[in-house]
């Protein structure tokens, strides 16, 4: 187990370098003129151009800049945004927002998603089953910005049940965006659980368990549920990575200054340093999340062992 | 003003879970319904909050609460004294500014040296202040901003500036500043109304980055806590404010939005009091949504299409005029912009003194027959098609395409709109003479003077004269106006310069901006000034 974890951690190094190089090269490949973008349609004063070019090594080739970046990173320095803010500060401020959103989304999608999936899977063809299928289909097929805007206009502006945007009213502010963010995954989880449950119900070991007279409660919780959750946990793990990456669309609609919000803004103004900083962080989180999921398999399924 | 009528019932199991995990721990919202005298207003994340480096609208708005400028502007957009007691000059070259008594928010007196230090900081090239170019008229500016010897592409870097102080700027005593300009400039007092010319306290220079997280000013409001990036800047009334009338409200929350539509929904929900710009997407319904809380006022923006001087097809002034005459500005304003902008038929904005209606004359009057006749007289259009360049990220596609349709119909010419991803790329193409058609430009005034339109946009080598228009007589008139004895005289000369533009038609004036804004039922007296800032001392809570 220990060796396995160590090996996985070591594998992360080349993955990390590879992904950051790609992002570095891609942000440069956008071309354009980041200094001019800072100024919109105004002329950039020469002095500003000279100072920024020097500070961010804008006139150096990408590998030199990447080297500056990596050596800074090793010393815990993510560099500064083109506006002069330390990127580490920006990450530290953005993270809690995204975490809260992700937390709500995860709770909503796992409780409601798994719950609905179980009910539907255990009683296939029933009214509940059809209801779950139909409603999840609807959610999956409507794009998230439509769900977000509709929720904001009705729940936020017209009925005024929850704050329409921002983060200034405590946890209430995160409730609506969190639910919206979790809604699509919720639908997938419900369907995944349903399929997995109904498949497990017809397996040999469940039939055997029934035949030897185990109480149906025990059959369900030990044999069906546990096995059905493996694909769901896989999905949730991937989803954690995605959620931590912030939700560009949702955070933008609801004005939540989280990770996605910052990445979106940086993309728009072509703030390369910010983009690379945030994405490097995301890469690390994604790698850690997938490691965590792999380890969780072993907990759910004793047959899986890591050496 | 308050948030959602927080229906606690929405909070189901999730809420319990949230509470249990203390995840919503940072509940900052006050649920005190009608917090009296507190007003909220939308801004975007300010770029910086240091006066000399703030030239965009959100930063300006916040700093306008924290600082009082040397001059304000009256209803005719003429400067009136605010933080300055008097601004005088014999020759328009050496100016003496006397200050009123005032204190910083930390209690220290404001001195002339505070202004001098702040301006020197702004003018010093390596500080890379956005407002750096505002000090270009001061004597000694060149020594602080050496130019790169081999251009920005070259390998050499610009030399270290020889000076870190403007030679034409000194504090004579605690209350007197003396400014020497490199050339006479009659409109200097108007220039001083801008954000860039606010003073900075001594403490600011110890650590400018730290200062900007909670700027200390001398204005009607002071910071309440720090700048919460991407969320909020809070200010409260400054009790010892002496530079003018005390504001009628106690506090302002500048809420930071990334998307105007979100802010609009917040306004409808009563979560936001003042929305400074109503987004175009909701313009159709905003009037009925808001009723008499939907407001407009003239803004300084000027949208136009510029002819590339390097392109032969547009060399004949008759061709340039014909294209302009084939455009129905009013129709585009009504249909595409739903009345949120105004048709432009002059080369300077209505917000500056000296503006005259319709200086462009016949050439801006929609007249398809005359346009066609003029084009035929010029021997037709020499190129194969008219190409309108615009940046694709600015929401310009609709009106450019509509304009092209009009030209196609009225002049029987092929016309296409050519999107270019970013404005910067469009400029690069123009600079390299790669783009062969008229391209869109927009201009926002820096200081309220005709000269601020004529100088940068049309004089030879003007900072935003990307299209290369050059007319010696025009240049001379603009310079003469700057040197004129009085503002009135200057305006008269500049108006003559504007008439030359109407003859030469280097650009097609299209639209002037309008501030379209709205407010909630809990505030009154919301006005927007010519710098696009909400006038803070007129707001009242209802």
Describe how the helices and strands are arranged.
The complex is a heterodimer of chains A (307) and B (542).
Chain A: H1 2-29, H2 34-38, H3 46-55, H4 62-74, H5 87-122, H6 127-141, H7 144-158, H8 171-201, H9 204-211, H10 216-244, H11 248-253, H12 259-268, H13 272-300
Helix pairs in contact in A: 1-13, 5-6, 5-8, 5-10, 5-12, 6-8, 7-8, 8-10, 9-10, 10-13, 12-13
Chain B: H1 13-21, E1 38-43, H2 57-66, E2 71-73, E3 79-81, E4 84-89, E5 94-99, H3 112-123, H4 141-144, E6 169-173, E7 176-180, H5 188-191, H6 208-211, E8 221-223, E9 232-237, E10 251-256, H7 260-268, E11 274-275, H8 283-290, E12 294-306, H9 317-325, H10 329-335, E13 341-343, H11 368-377, E14 386-391, H12 397-411, E15 415-420, H13 423-431, E16 439-443, H14 451-458, H15 472-483, H16 487-504, E17 507-519, E18 523-524, E19 540-541
Parallel strand pairs in B: 1-10, 14-15
Antiparallel strand pairs in B: 2-3, 4-5, 5-7, 6-7, 8-9, 9-10, 11-17, 12-16, 12-17, 13-17, 18-19
Walk me through what this model shows.
The complex is a heterodimer of chains A (307) and B (542). Chain A is mostly helical. Helix content of chain A is 77%, strand content 0%. The longest helix of chain A is centred in the middle third of the chain and has 36 residues, at 87-122. Chain B is an alpha+beta fold. Chain B contains 16 helices and 19 strands. Chain B has helices spanning 13-21, 57-66, 112-123, 141-144, 188-191, 208-211, 260-268, 283-290, 317-325, 329-335, 368-377, 397-411, 423-431, 451-458, 472-483, 487-504; strands at residues 38-43, 71-73, 79-81, 84-89, 94-99, 169-173, 176-180, 221-223, 232-237, 251-256, 274-275, 294-306, 341-343, 386-391, 415-420, 439-443, 507-519, 523-524, 540-541. In chain B, strands 11, 12, 13, 16 and 17 form a five-stranded antiparallel β-sheet that branches. In chain B, strands 1-10-9-8 form a four-stranded mixed β-sheet, with helices on one face. In chain B, β4 and β5 form a beta hairpin. At the A-B interface, α2, α3, α5, α7 and α8 of A face α1, α7 and α13 of B.
């Amino acid at each position: 187990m220990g060796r396995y974890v160590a090996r996985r951690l070591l594998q992360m190094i080349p993955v990390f370098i590879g992904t950051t190089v790609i992002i570095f090269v891609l942000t440069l490949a956008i071309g354009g003129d980041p200094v001019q973008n800072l100024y919109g349609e105004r002329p950039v004063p020469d002095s500003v151009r000279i100072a920024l070019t020097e500070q961010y090594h804008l006139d150096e080739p990408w590998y030199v800049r990447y080297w500056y970046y990596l050596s800074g990173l090793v010393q815990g320095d993510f560099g500064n945004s083109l506006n002069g803010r330390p990127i580490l500060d920006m990450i530290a401020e953005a993270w809690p927002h995204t975490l809260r959103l992700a937390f709500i989304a995860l709770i909503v999608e796992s409780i409601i998603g798994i719950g609905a999936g179980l009910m539907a899977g255990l009683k296939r063809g029933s009214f509940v089953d059809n209801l779950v299928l139909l409603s999840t289909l609807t959610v999956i097929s409507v794009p998230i910005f439509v769900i977000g805007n509709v929720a904001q206009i009705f729940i936020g502006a017209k009925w005024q049940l929850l704050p329409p945007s921002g983060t200034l009213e405590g946890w209430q502010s995160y409730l609506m965006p969190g639910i919206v963010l979790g809604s699509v995954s919720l639908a997938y989880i419900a369907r995944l659980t349903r399929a997995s449950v109904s498949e497990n119900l017809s397996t040999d070991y469940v039939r055997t368990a029934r035949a030897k007279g185990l109480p149906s409660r025990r059959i369900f919780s030990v044999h069906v549920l546990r096995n059905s959750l493996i694909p769901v946990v896989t999905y949730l793990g991937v989803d954690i990575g995605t959620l931590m990456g912030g939700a560009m669309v949702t955070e933008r609609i609801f004005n939540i200054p989280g990770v996605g919000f910052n990445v979106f803004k940086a993309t728009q103004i072509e703030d390369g340093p910010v983009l690379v900083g945030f994405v490097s962080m995301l890469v690390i989180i994604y790698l850690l999340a997938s490691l965590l999921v792999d380890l969780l398999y072993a907990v759910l399924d004793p047959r899986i062992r890591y050496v | 003003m308050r948030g959602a009528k927080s229906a606690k019932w929405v909070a189901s199991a999730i809420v319990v879970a949230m509470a249990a995990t203390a995840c919503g721990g940072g509940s900052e919202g006050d649920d005190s319904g009608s917090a009296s005298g507190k007003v909220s207003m939308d801004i975007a994340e300010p770029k910086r909050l240091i006066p000399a480096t703030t030239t965009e609208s959100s930063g300006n708005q916040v700093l306008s609460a924290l600082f009082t400028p040397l001059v304000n502007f009256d209803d005719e957009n003429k400067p009136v004294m605010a933080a300055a007691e008097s601004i005088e000059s014999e020759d328009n070259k050496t100016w003496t500014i006397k200050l009123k008594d005032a204190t910083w928010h930390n209690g220290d007196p404001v001195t002339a040296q505070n202004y001098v230090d702040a301006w020197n900081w702004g003018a010093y090239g390596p500080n890379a202040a956005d407002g750096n170019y505002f000090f270009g008229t001061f004597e000694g500016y060149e020594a602080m901003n050496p130019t790169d010897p081999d251009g920005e592409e070259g390998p050499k870097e610009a030399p270290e500036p020889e000076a870190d102080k403007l030679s034409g700027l000194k504090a004579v005593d605690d209350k007197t500043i003396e400014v020497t300009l490199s050339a006479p400039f009659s409109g200097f007092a108007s220039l001083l109304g801008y954000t860039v010319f606010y003073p900075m306290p001594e403490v600011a220079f110890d650590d400018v980055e730290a200062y900007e997280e909670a700027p200390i000013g001398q204005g009607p409001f002071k910071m309440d806590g720090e700048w919460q990036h991407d969320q909020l800047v809070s200010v409260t009334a400054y009790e010892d404010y002496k530079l003018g009338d005390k504001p009628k409200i106690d506090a302002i929350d500048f809420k930071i939005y990334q998307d105007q539509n979100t802010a609009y929904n917040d306004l409808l929900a009563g979560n936001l009091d003042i929305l400074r710009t109503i987004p175009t997407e909701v313009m159709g319904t905003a009037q009925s949504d808001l009723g008499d809380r939907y407001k407009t006022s003239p803004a300084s923006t000027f949208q136009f299409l510029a002819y590339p001087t390097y392109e032969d097809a547009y060399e004949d002034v008759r061709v340039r005029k014909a294209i302009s005459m084939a455009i129905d500005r009013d129709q585009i304003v009504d249909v595409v912009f739903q009345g949120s902008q105004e048709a432009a038929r002059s080369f300077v904005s209505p917000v500056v003194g000296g503006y005259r209606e319709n200086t462009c004359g016949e050439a801006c009057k929609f007249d398809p027959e005359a346009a066609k006749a003029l084009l035929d007289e010029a021997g037709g259009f020499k190129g194969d098609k008219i190409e309108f360049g615009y940046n694709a990220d600015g929401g310009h596609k609709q009106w450019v395409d509509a304009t092209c349709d009009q030209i196609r119909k009225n002049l029987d010419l092929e016309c296409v709109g050519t999107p270019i991803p970013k404005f910067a790329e469009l400029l690069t193409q123009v600079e390299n003479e790669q783009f062969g058609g008229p391209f869109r430009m927009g201009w926002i005034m820096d200081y309220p003077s005709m000269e601020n339109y004529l100088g940068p946009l049309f004089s030879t080598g003007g900072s935003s004269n990307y299209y290369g228009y050059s007319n010696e007589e025009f240049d001379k008139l603009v310079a003469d106006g700057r040197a004129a004895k009085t503002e009135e005289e200057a305006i008269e000369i500049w108006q003559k310069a504007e008439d030359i533009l109407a003859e030469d038609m280097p650009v097609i004036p299209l639209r002037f901006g309008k501030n379209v804004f709205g407010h909630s039922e809990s505030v009154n007296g919301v006005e927007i000034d010519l710098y696009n800032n909400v006038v803070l001392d007129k707001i009242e809570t209802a």
